[in-house]
Amino acid sequence: MKKIKLKKFSAGNGKSIHSNCGVFGVFNNPDASTLTYYGLHALQHRGQESAGIVTSQYLPDKQRYHFNVHKDFGLVLNIFSDEKILTGQLKGNSAIGHNRYSTSGSSDKKSNIQPLKVVYKNGNLALSHNGNLVNAHSLRLQLQDKGTIFQTTSDSEVILHLIARSEKENLIEKLKEVFNIVRGAYSLCILTDDKLIAVRDPYGIRPMCIGKLNDSYIFASETSALDIIDAEYIRDVEPGEIVVIDDEVVKTGILKSEIFAKVDKYRHCIFEYIYFSRPDSNIFNEKVDKVRRKIGTNLAIESPPPDKDNPDDDKEKKVIVMNVPDSSNTATIGYISQASRTNKNVKHEIGLIRSHYVGRTFITPGQDKREMRLKTKFSIIKGILAGRKVVIVDDSIVRGNTLRLLVKLIKKALPKEIHLRITSPPIVSPCYYGMDFPSREELIAYQCGGDVEEIRKKLDVTSLKYLSVEQLMESVPHTTEKTGYCTACFTKKYPIEIDDAENIDKNLFDL
Ligand code: SF4
Asked: What is the pLDDT of residues 393-417, one digit of tens each?
């Protein structure tokens, strides 16, 4: 395997990890755009920068299909706030949608907002991509050498050009050819004039499921997007599979499927279970809620809360275990359930309140902007924490900036001690498969050479414990012989060779 060069990786501007993207598609429904709107709404956590919907509409008078599109920066609620966009502008019986947090291609270019849409010799084509290609840069250069003109700076556009240039006879053969050329993480919805297609990379890095609503077929990143429209879950799109929905599938009820590549072991992104996916979703054939509770349980077994100073003293108050809302809520339930089994002197409390209305932050002289922003997001319940030993359960530590400020805020409640318990191992390396991690140099675990005691000192807490890679692996399902996970951001073991590592940069293609 080629050695991976871990050079500069573009940092996101947020304080923590951002999810990559959410994709959704509907075939054969007169309300395709409205269903897609709700699907995107349920997938909003996977990308909050921009969103879009493309529909395929048959024009009987012109005897051809027309693709309608609406996309913009912002949240789904705001972009589609005018009902006329869905009912008037986005007509058509089939649609695909996309929520984006940019992990490739500049975030401020409107042309990069997905779904991407082109017209080629076989008709209209639109694409929604969740993931990141690891050979997009070299493919782009090759295509440019052959005269291809790119409209965006996104890696996903490479896929559209490869499909358009393929000389294979039918679309499925074209797709099979293309997906044996591109490498990386991709869960895709592709819309043609008369077909809806889902494709998932051979390692199954990102999730993707198939659903049914009466005679309509749905593809979605997570099952929470099926639940919101009352669609029935059928199955996952298999790694290395192309699934095609057309009128014939609607008539027969039999999915058209092709496996275009096989690997010995799948490499699902383990971070989907730790943090990215919604707890009410079912991904990689298991409920996220269940896995996340088990992760919390195993953390409590491995790193239990401290005891009271005098465990037999009934007058001494219990040790408080609290979650950082909302991302560690579920794992904290697992943690406290396990901890309570062996230690009667611990109890769960809501010590942090999260505001969901965080907007722009204005500061006065002497105020720290980051600290101000954190204060607008979190507030503490002082009475609960004062004089207590407090255990904070959080899902991960990236740069450590937010947690450091959170600890500072909690200290204002004058707790006796603060103990951090993290439901993932230390993040020591970036993600090249579609998650917006900062550069390796910005990761606190990298800065401290992986020394947990050093990290503890930087965060200024009494104790710090991470979940081990072994216990994390023990927490996730191993449903079949082929089930396996990517853990590269914890272990540096990248399952897919990355020949563009130094070029996977948001602004790489910017002109
Ligand atoms: S590197 Fe980490 S975030 Fe990226 S796919 Fe692998 S486990 Fe997921």
From this structure: 999 999 999 899 999 999 999 999 9
Closest Cα partner for 80 from 25, 141, 35? 35
Q: What is the per-residue pLDDT across 465-474, written as a single tens digit (0 to 9) for each?
A: 999 999 999 9
Question: In 10 A of CB 176, how many CB atoms?
Answer: 18
Top mutation candidate among 130, 269, 396 for ligand 1, by most atoms within 8 Å of CB: 269
Query: Residues lining ligand 1, CB < 6 A?
Result: 205, 269-271, 431, 433, 435, 486-489
Q: What is the token pair recorded at 12?
A: 């996101």
The full 3-state SS of 170-238, as one line of letters, equals CHHHHHHHHCCCCCECCEEEEEECCCEEEEECCCCCCCCEEEEECCEEEEECCCHHHHCCCCEEEEECC
434 CA: nearest ligand 1 atom: 4
Q: Please state the pTM of the whole predicted model.
A: 0.92
Taking Cα atoms as reference points, which of 209, 226, 232 lies closest to residue 36?
226
Q: Which residues of the chain have pLDDT under 50?
A: 1-15, 505-511
Q: Cα(446) to centroid of ligand 1, in Å? A: 16
21: annotated active-site residue? yes
Instruction: Please identify, by atom number, the ligand 1 atom nearest to the C-alpha of residue 430.
Output: 1
Q: What is the pLDDT of residues 273-317, one digit of tens each?
A: 999 999 999 999 999 999 999 999 999 999 999 999 998 888 899
Catalytic residue (one of 21, 189, 209, 431): 21
Cα 364 to averaged position of ligand 1 atoms, centre (Å) = 39
